[in-house]
Structure formats: C-alpha cells, structure tokens
Amino acid sequence: MIKIPNLSLALKTQIETNSALVEIAAETEILREGQYIKVIPLVIEGLVKVFTKHEDKELLLYYIQPSESCVMSFTASLKNEPSKVFAITEENSKILLLPVDKVSHWIEEFPDLNNLFFQQYNLRYSDLLETINQLLFDKLDKRLMDYLKEKVKVTKKNPLKISHRQIANELGTAREVISRVMKKLEQESKVKQFSNSVEIL
Amino acid sequence: MIKIPNLSLALKTQIETNSALVEIAAETEILREGQYIKVIPLVIEGLVKVFTKHEDKELLLYYIQPSESCVMSFTASLKNEPSKVFAITEENSKILLLPVDKVSHWIEEFPDLNNLFFQQYNLRYSDLLETINQLLFDKLDKRLMDYLKEKVKVTKKNPLKISHRQIANELGTAREVISRVMKKLEQESKVKQFSNSVEIL
DNA sequence: TGTAAGTGGTGACCAAGGTCACTGTTTTGG
DNA sequence: CCAAAACAGTGACCTTGGTCACCACTTACA
C-alpha cells in the first residue's frame, strides 16, 4: 500500500486501483511548456525539478518531493490548458499517474484529497514568492549559498556531485559567474570544492 | 444581492447573512507581512494591490479585482500562518469579509466556493510565475511597458495619473531609472507624458 | 590508450541598472 | 499667495553580473 500522509484508506484504495505507478529514470523530461496533459502525477519516490525557461536561460522554481503533486498538471489537465513550466526527474523516481476524470470526482468525494491539493497550491505559492524575493533582493553569492543548502536538504547529500554549469543553469546565470562566486565562497570558508563536487561547511 | 459569477444562490445567501461588507478608502493598507488574520476578503468593487517588500524596496505582485479573493488570506487564516505579502487598496473599494470558521465549512458544503478558491490559487500561481519570468528574462524598458499596459487595463484609465516614483516602487527600481527609461520610450513614441500622467500610445 | 567532450579558471571588457548630487518645475496646503 | 513638499531631468560614477577568448585539466569511452 502506497504511503501518503493524511489520505483515507478508502481514497488510497481508489487511487491504487485506478492509477498507474510508473518508474522514471533520472534526467527524464516529464513536462514541457505548452504541453497539454491528461494525467496528474503524485511523486512516491525520487525527486522532480520544476523550472521555467526562455531561450537557453532557465531557472529552478521548486522541487516536487515524495508525497507531493504538481499543481501545474492539476490545472493544466482539469482546465485543459497548456503547461507554463518544465519538469524533469532529478533522480530515479516512482510516480503515480492519476487520471484527470477520476481526480475531478475524487476531489468532491474525498475532502482529504481536496485538502491535499489546497496544500500543494499553498506550498507552490510560497515557493514562487520565495523565488521572487531571492531574484529581487539577493545578490548572487547569497542566492548560490541558499541554492546549495536547499539542494543538500532535498537530495540529502553533502558533498553534492554537481557541475558549475548545472548550478549556473538552475540559477539562471552563466558558468563563469558561478566559478567566480564559488571561489569567493571558498575563500570565505563557506564551501569546499573537490573534483566535480561541492561540500557545504 | 451581491453579484459574483458562478456562485449558487444558496451560497450567496449564506455569505450575505454571515459576512460584513466594508467600504475602504483608497491607499489603505489592509494586510502586511507577518500579520495574522481571521477573515478572508472578497473584493466586490474597487482594486487591491498585492506586493512584496524588503527594506524600502518593493515589487507589485498582482491586483485583486472585483469578484476575486486573496489566497494569502485564505491560507493565512485557515492554517493560522502569518502573511508573506502586503496588500493595499488602490481605489475606494467595497470588500466582503468572510469569517474563516464559516468558510472552512462552506468549502465542504458548496463545491462552487471550493472551485472559486482553486481558480484563485491557479490565477495567483500564474501571476507569480509571470512576475518571475519578467524579472528574469526582460529588460526594464519591456517591464515598464508591460506594467503600464497592465495598469491601463486594470484601472481602465488612459492616460494614467501616476508619478515616476510610484512606478519605480512597483517595479522594484529607482525613480531616476524610470525617468531615463521613460524618456527613451517617449522618443520611441510608445508613451506620451503630461504633467504627472502617462498615456500609452 | 588516446582523443573528444566536458569541466573549471581567469583576465579583459561590456551593459544594465543603481546611486549621488544637484537643478528646476509643479502641486498643494496653510 | 507663498512656502514647503513632491516631482522630474540629468550627468557622473559605481557595482553586479554577463560575455568573450583562452588555456588547462579530467573523464568517458571507442
């Protein structure tokens, strides 16, 4: 039985018998801007990254962690609108795919599912607002540190195996810039770099 | 009887008999960061501006227009969390104040209200994402033009009576910068300036 | 095992926008 | 009607971060 906090047994049974559980390899694109979809993902295991992108420049928006869903898919499928964001698996993941037509009924029938989606919306509202505040108020050194801390927390790995290029992509900037700021942070003893990996101190 | 699209008569009656309709003068602060609240506003008439702020620097996030509500208030009051944003009336406004304890019941009882809040969350998600995209991908001249067009649409006034200082505040920048960019836009015949007002061409 | 691809480091330079200082004009309230 | 406050214009300068051109090192895999 799938473990998702705060869902009733009746609902979990419904979900299990009506949804597909798929395993998706790391680094697989699962949603792109403009795409129409008919399925709502519920992450069981692994990690999904959601980001915005425009002509080679992109920005990490938030992660979808186990027990979480994707509100973009929720509205995109219920209202038949195209997605405004991209999503990609960052780790090998197990994801439940809930069929839209079922979900629209379940929402009325099961207050706990209704609740879950309200919680998800609220969470993403906070995530996006946080992103705005960082873009607007913080310099790159702070943004980089916050990014690294968040990444350590979410992947539960320290040191992180990650390239300067990927960091740059996720922060919407250039590799050289990360190189520069990273060096500064290392001199300030806030991080330590090995080959291809970064440890937060 | 209050006119709000897509709400059942039964619900509207409930709302009318259990909520206070208040008139709030323009430029009145109605919500600040860190504040706890026990009431959910539904704008009937007028216009409410929602923004983020940090040490004198602020940024317009979105407007709450008639028939719309405030999802920040929704979660802040239902989950007893402090607000993360500021809100201020931009015009004289009539606002229905729904008591939280009632709303939590109405949401289960009336699918149309449940629906309204999902729509509002979706709308704000889009608003915040749009804000992020503009901050990240657009230069100030484009951001300024978009801001002015939006303002004209939302206030239904062209020319707009507005100072460079206020524009600067809402875009998170400085007055001198707006002065500069405004001059450029005027030379490109995209706007026309009179004393204390701006017309979009 | 050698070569191509990916990665990181660095200096020089550029562009956008933020800051400062100061001026003149317009608006407003007593 | 006049003084104070708010507003707008502008040149000089600074800071941040983006761009470019390289070079050197590591890693993967053919």
The shape of chain A, in one word, is elongated
Q: Which structural category do the helix and sheet elements of chain A fall into?
A: alpha+beta
What would the CATH topology of the largest domain in chain A be? Jelly Rolls
Largest interface: A-B, 32 and 32 residues
CATH architecture of the largest domain in chain A: Sandwich
Write down how many β-strands of chain A occur, each being a DSSP E stretch of 2 or more residues.
10
Instruction: Give the biggest sheet of chain A.
Output: 4 strands, antiparallel
Distance from first to last alpha carbon of chain A: 39 Å
Strand order of the largest sheet of chain A: 2-6-4-5
Low-confidence stretches of chain A: none
Oligomer: homodimer
**Residues in β-strands, percent of chain A:** 25-35%
Helix coverage percent of residues of chain A? 40-55%
Domain HTH crp-type (chains A, B): 138-201
Organism (chains A, B): Lacihabitans soyangensis
Pfam families (chains A, B): HTH_Crp_2 (PF13545)
InterPro entries (chains A, B): cNMP-bd_dom_sf (IPR018490), HTH_CRP (IPR012318), RmlC-like_jellyroll (IPR014710), WH-like_DNA-bd_sf (IPR036388), WH_DNA-bd_sf (IPR036390)
Structure description:
Chains A, B: This is Crp/Fnr family transcriptional regulator. Chains A, B: GO terms for molecular function: DNA binding. Chains A, B: Keywords: DNA-binding, Transcription, Transcription regulation. 2 copies of one chain form a homodimer. The first copy, chain A, has 7 helices and 10 strands. The longest helix of chain A has 27 residues, at about 110-135. In chain A, helix 6 packs across helix 7 (about 175-185). The mean pLDDT of chain A is about 95. By secondary structure, chain A is of the alpha+beta class. Chain A folds into 2 domains: about 10-135, Sandwich (Jelly Rolls); about 140-200, Winged helix-like DNA-binding domain superfamily/Winged helix DNA-binding domain (Arc Repressor Mutant, subunit A, Orthogonal Bundle), CATH 1.10.10.10. Chains A and B meet through strand 5, helix 2 and helix 4 of A and strand 5, helix 2 and helix 4 of B. Chain A binds a DNA duplex (30 and 30 nucleotides) through helix 7.
